[in-house]
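Give me the 3D structure for BCR protein.
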Amino acid sequence: AAEGEAARADFARHWQAQFPGEAAPRMELGSVRAMERELERCRRHLRRLQRALAEERFKVGYLQAALARAPPP
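Predicted structure for BCR protein (73 residues):
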């Protein structure tokens, strides 16, 4: 339990350095296995976000090109 608390405090300190004023997200860091599960969860979430970002970028590019081709109102 003490290791988990130390790991959470370390994570929170690093989070605050990167994102001042933002509360650190709650993560299970009490064991190597728990950290591996968190890592996999974060990777899955990152893949979903990257996909959503790619979709939005595509839509923006498409709409900008379509508007550039459109006759003036």
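The radius of gyration is 20 Å. Let me know if you want a second pass.
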